[in-house]
Every structure is written in C-alpha cells, then in structure tokens.
Amino acid sequence: MTKINKLLIANRGEISSRIQKTCQRLGIATVAVYSEADANATFVLSANERYCIGKPEPHLSYLNQAAIISACKQSGAQAVHPGYGFLSENSSFAKALEENGILFLGPRASSIDLMGDKIRSREAMSKAGVPVVPGFSSDSKDPEFFLKEAKKIGFPVMIKATAGGGGKGMRKVDKEEDFIPFFEAAVREAEKAFGNGLVFLEKYISNPRHIEFQIFGDSHGNVIHLHERDCSIQRRHQKVLEETPAPNFPREWKEKMATYAILAGQSIQYLGAGTVEFILGEDGSFYFLEMNTRLQVEHPITEMVTGLDLVELQIRIAEGESIPNPLLELDGIPQNGHAIEVRVYAEDPSNGFLPSIGKIEYMKCPSARGIRLDTGVDTGSEVSIYYDPMIGKLIAHAEDRDTCRKKLLQALRKFVIFGPTTNISFLQNILQEPEFIEGRATTHFLEGKGHLTLVEESIQMESLSWMFQLSQIPIESESIWRAVDNAFQI
Amino acid sequence: MRFKFESNSSIYSVIPLGNQSIRIIAPDGSSRDFRPRLTEEIDWLLPGPILLFEDSDGEVCSFLQIKDRFFLHWNGNTHSAKLEAHNFEDSTSVSLEIRSPMPGKLIKIFKKPGDLFEKGEVLGVLEAMKMENQLKAGFPGKISQVLKKEGEIVSQDEVLIVLEPLP
C-alpha cells in the first residue's frame, strides 16, 4: 500500500482548487501543472509546487501526457488526480502512469475503455442485467421487418439514422399505422444527408428525467452508492442545475435504480468514483445511459447531503484502503436535507449563450450558512478564450428543498461579477419557474422557455437610469482614501 | 443633452431632465421617466473604485465605470451598458461590416466578394472556446470585401466582411 503524501493535479481552475482543499486538510502536498495562459491563476498560486507544462491550447498542455508525467517525476508526486474533462477519461494516460509507477486516482484503464464506448458499454450492461433503452438495429431496410420489431418495443418509438446527427433521418412515431411512411421518409432523408440509409429503432421515453447515481468501488470488491442526483435541467446536453435528493422520486423507484447502479459497478469490478447515468420515464421505467468514470462536476451536492469528502474517498481507495465500514452497512450513507448546485458561466443568455470572456473587474461572492462556492477565479482573473468559460459552481444546502431553493436564490442575488456577462440572472429565473418549484422538470425543461433568458424591459430601463445617475457622482480624492480604508478592512 | 447606451445589443437613449429625473427611451420608442434616489450612504471600494450604495429597500448595490463601460449590481441582478458617445445613428440602421464579436478563430467563410445574401443568412463561422458562433447578415445585400481567410485568428471587433445593401 502506497501512502500518498504528494499529489499532482492534472487539471485547472475550480476543480484543481477543490482537490487542493482536501489535500491541505489531509496534509498531502499539492503539485499544480499549468499552461502559459494560467500562470497567474488562483489554483497555480495556492498549490505547494507548480510546473508549467506548455502553451495555452489544451493539446499542448493539459492534454500533454509526457509533460505531466515528467512533472510527476520532477516533483516526486506519487499520484495524479485528473479532475474532470481533459485526461480524466483517457485510458492511455492511466496506463502510462501505471507504467511509470504513479497512482491514477480513477478506475482501471479497462473500465475507462469499456465505458467510453457507447455501444460496448450498453452491451456489457445489458449482459449484466442492467436495463438499457430497448432498441433494434439491422442491416436491412425492410419496413415490415422493422415494424415487427417496433411493435415489440412498443410505441412511441424513435427512428434514428445510424450515421446520424442533427435530427436528420430522425422520426418519432406515435402510432403503428404511421410507422411505414415515417420509416421510409427517415431512410430517404438519411440517404440524402449521410449517403447511408441505415436506421435503427429506439424506445421513445416521454418526459424523461436524467437521474444519476454516485457510486464508489474499492480494491476489496465493495461497491456502494451515495444516492442519486437529478440533473434534468440541461441546455444542449450540458447540465445547468443539479439537485439531490431528486424531487418527486418514490422510494421504490430509487431502491430499484440504486440496485442496478451497484450492479453496473460490480459487473466491471469498478474502482474509485463513478457515476451511473439513467434516463427515467414518467411511468417509472428507467434505462442505463452511460457511466462516467471520474469525479463529476456536480459532486458537491452529494458531499453536502452525505457529509463525505469524495476526493478523500478517492485518495484512500487509490491507496488501497477499503471503503470505511460504517459506509458499507445497509442505509449507512446519510442523506441529510437537500442540496442544489447551479453552474455559473461567463456567457450571455440573451445573446444565444455566447461565451463572454475578458477580465473579471470585480467579483463579490455570496457567503452564508449552507452556501458553498467552488470557483477558480477572483477579482482580476481572466476568463480566457482557451477553456470552458465556467466561473464556478454555487451550491446551497438546507433542511428541505424549498428552503434550499430560496437560499440559493438569495445567494445568486448577492453574487456580483463585473466584466464578463454571466448567466446568474438566468439561473435565478430557473429557480423561480413554477415547473421547477414543483419539482416537475424534465430534460425538455428549457425548450420553449426563451423568457428565462430575457430581462424585463422596464427593469433594463430603470437600471440605465441608475447607471447614468451614479456615473455623475465625482470620485473625489477623499473617496479614494475611503476606498483604501475599505480595502484594508477586508 | 442626450446619451446613447448600448445594453443587451440594443440602443437606449438617456435624457437627463433636471430635478433628478432621467428619461429613458427604449429601442421600441417607448419612454419612461425615473428618479433614482440615492441615500447618503455611499462607500468606495478598491479596486475600481467600486461605488457601494443602498437602494430604497436598504440592499447594498454596487457600481463600476471603466471608461465607456458601466456595470451595475442592483435589485439582485447585474446590468451592464456601454456608452456609445460617438454613435448617434438611428438604432434601426444596421452595420455594413461584419465584425468579430469576440476573439477566436475564423473557421468558415461561406461567401466571396460579389455573392448575394439574404437577411439572416450565415456568412461565416467563428470558433471561440470550443463553441461555434454564426456570423449572420442583418439585411439582404451583396458581399463587397472579405478581409480575413478561413483559419485566421481574429481579435474582438475586427472587421471580417464588408457588405453592401442591395439598391
């Protein structure tokens, strides 16, 4: 068993800062790697050691395996935490570390490979007995043949182009009598769009929700789940808001899904932190979507309700320890109160969510009991063109869902960022939408809700009157001294 | 005196009426008068300096001006605007230049000089931060010049394509 006392974090921004916090608490020295664009970033300055690994473009730095492994050797770090994104789900990186005798805080390379392949992972899960979305594919283009299969799956079904994308060659069929004409149209469309008329069938799930389970496996064969997260609110398949427990989620449904989440992990002898994602229909039917073999962006909400530090668990499991006994007992994982996370982005909702980059001229973070902010930027930081423009994740925890929602709303109202445009007002609007308040959000939540991106015209006008009025106040020399005074007080 | 502010890609007129009243004219021509009332409690904070003040509900608000850019956090939301001191043209007129809305890489140009285009047609694609952004025409017309090549890195506000309206 290797005891980790120096950890290299092969990532940037908020997740690097987040991992460093756990390391500081555990007395583990931290090594940051960074690109030239991040030389002055918070996560670089706060680490115990830092190594520049290349130019700003990700493939020249954060994806540069050789440079990262060389930083491990120079610093003497025994382990690497990959965070999320970048190399976190790259099996060749996991193998390269192993060959160099460095621990990878993630699953076995074989698990990464299997789960990274949509078709193979589906097959493996189906074989293990985990429900997958019923579907049918064949090299045939015979409509009658497919109709027979469609009836087995049950209507409504989706017809999708095998070579597909962008909705071309895609049809939703509600009734049996529509099937043949829709099928023929889909084949024609696919032929025209992709030069390949092959299509497949998939069960259509009405009003689906995205429910995922946090799981952990250790090297002693234990697999546990740390409850669910509801991540139904998404924009272009990117999660916007996550919460736990899932609202309107009967206990029987949860217990069934949790059993399959654990089965999914056990069937591949999963090691470390993973997330099993399911699609949940309104009738309670659910199917395996995919498994993420890393720490998720939204892991903090699980930490808030369980009181566990997921990064610490990852470190201990990598060291070869077993999952602590109390957590292995039936109902051993607490689920206290409710937690909601929103992703604060430098983007302009009123302008097609265009990324908004530049210097953060002023940033004031909300702080209150039960409010957590995971961020990698501060006043003076640059939101750069090279990376994901996420400013941070704001998380609220309270005894029940509505208190939590209101607390998060209050915190968002107090969150000030001058410089890049952010989605903070948009997030506030989501939290005040009746469908969300009642816990009825599905993955279609944001469709047709353009009003959430708008600012009321009268408010916009009044804000301009304030800006004009305030710009008329002269900055006197004395006021600068008052500013200096205030600066010293912080 | 009359000021033009750009906010949320629209142009607003701001007219101080004296006696603390300010008239705002929205892009649709509608107008409203406001009297933003400041309490005595004003503080300054560095860097910036940021002006801290209280609104009528006693909530702390903040304001920052950097040259022609204005930032206001008020009523739980952040608003920003740009003073268009030199731009007094009518808000309905549309620019004859396609400029890059942000720094990025020009990955596609669909037109060459002399080509015709429709209102709303996509003339090019700019990639910034892994996202593709369409460059759309605001009116029907003809391409006059294409100043950048596919694959070129462009900075914010650079002129990419020059347009001419149809007669």
Radius of gyration of chain A: 25 Å
CATH-wise, what's the superfamily of the largest domain in chain A? Answer: ATP-grasp fold, B domain
What oligomerization state is this entry in?
A: heterodimer
Query: How large is the count of helical segments of chain A?
Result: 17
Placed side by side, the strands forming the largest sheet of chain A appear as 14-13-10-11-12-15-22-20
Average pLDDT, all residues of chain A: 93
CA gyration radius of chain B, whole angstroms: 20 Å
Strand order of the largest sheet of chain B: 4-3-2-1-9-8-7-6-5
The major beta sheet of chain B can be summarized as: 9 strands, antiparallel
How much helical structure, as a percent, in the residues of chain A?
A: 25-40%
> What CATH architecture of the largest domain in chain A do you see?
2-Layer Sandwich
CA distance, first residue to last residue of chain A: 45 Å
Any key phrases for this structure?
heterodimer; A: 490 residues; alpha+beta; Rossmann fold; Dna Ligase, domain 1; D-amino Acid Aminotransferase, Chain A, domain 1; 8-stranded antiparallel β-sheet; 5-stranded parallel β-sheet; 17 helices; B: 167 residues; mainly beta; OB fold (Dihydrolipoamide Acetyltransferase, E2P); 9-stranded antiparallel β-sheet; 4-stranded antiparallel β-sheet; 0% helix; 54% strand
